[in-house]
Amino acid sequence: MNNGNTLVPAYSLRQLAGYFLKLGTVGFGGPVALVGYMHRDLVEQRKWMTEEDYREGLALAQLAPGPLAAQLAIYLGFVHYRYWGATLAGIAFVIPSFLMVLTIGYIYVQAGGIPWMQAIFYGIGAAVIGIIAVSSYKLTRKSLGSNKLLWLFFLVLAVSTYLTESENLWLILAAGAINLLVVAPPGWPGRKQYYYYPVLLLQIGVAAAPDKLMQIAWYFFKAGAFVFGSGLAIVPFLYGGVVKEFGWLNEQQFLDAVAVAMITPGPVVITVGFIGYLVAGFPGATVAALATFLPCYLFTILPAPWFSRYGKHPSIKAFVDGVTAAAVGAIGGAVLVLAKRQLTDITTIILAVLTILVLLRFKKIPEPYLILAAAVSGLLIKTFL
């Protein structure tokens, strides 16, 4: 099956929307786990997408700004059903977690905080590390094979991401360029042949907006348009604006917002909905979510036709393979960074290791069951120990 319309897809538009609605409802573990689920479900099990479709989507999602998992969902929706598929996949993927954070936001405001959240997050956070570690391992093994050059790109980005605690876009692009020159050195392209769709950094200036909703819209639009990497990469950017610049939330409220994003399924970046709710109620949550995901949507569908048309070219494929290897390395480095912050004592380490062993031993166990067990474990440990 290819990216074009010459073959009838093996699934309907309703089935596509249904899959992403389910993934957005029960897909725990953050961006690393979510992109792993998409590969497992859509490429390996259902065979709705080819390995090439998935790799092209992952590479494009990594090259463009915005949350990784949401962009990959939008691209995979585009593969066979073009703009309708991209739009429905994106909405279906995001809406369940948005409704969840709205509900939690309402409870949070009514109760004046969520004192039990730290206990739940203590257990869930450790299990999440185990889940994303296994997802990263499977994605790495599938993407790199025995290619030594791709493993080198992987290691460089993994170490760089771990040491700097941020993803380096230029290293990712360099990996693609080096692999292109080594694997498929081009005769320099003519004016109609391109090897990278340039990222359109939006240089838009606005006057100071006294209205809070306008402030929220512009700030979160910038967050969606200028932050590269997975949804986790947006957290430090949000902290600088939401806490330091505008003072909309205090430190504890911001940490609670991040925790809410981690304990709910779907994209981690949905924390913007919770933050928006705390700042300006339901209108604030809606504006923050729409403003954050609009750039993500545009930066995916605009280059998608080009990517699907030329992605099979040997030079393009070599570039994409290099970028994918580097992107997977960055994901692996991010797992180590999260583990360093989350696994702070012997109990959390044990919970994470148990999660890994269970996932490797019982390959079909649903992740939500593990999340529920970890939440109960966290409550019991914090209550009685």
TrEMBL record:
Claim: Cell membrane is one of the keywords in the record: yes
Membrane topology per record: Multi-pass membrane protein
Keyword Manganese: no
Pfam families according to UniProt: Chromate_transp
GO cellular component: plasma membrane
Top-level taxon of the source organism: Bacteria
Record GO terms (molecular function): chromate transmembrane transporter activity
Subcellular location: Cell membrane
Predominant localisation class: membrane
Keywords recorded for this protein, A-Z: Cell membrane, Membrane, Transmembrane, Transmembrane helix
Transmembrane regions: 16-37, 58-78, 84-107, 119-137, 149-164, 169-188, 217-239, 259-280, 287-306, 318-339, 346-362
Family membership noted in the UniProt record: Belongs to the chromate ion transporter (CHR) (TC 2.A.51) family.
NCBIfam families linked to this entry: 2A51
PANTHER family xrefs: CHROMATE TRANSPORT PROTEIN-RELATED, CHROMATE TRANSPORTER
Stated name of the protein: Chromate transporter
Organism: Flavihumibacter petaseus NBRC 106054
Taxonomic placement: Bacteria, Pseudomonadati, Bacteroidota, Chitinophagia, Chitinophagales
Annotated gene: chrA
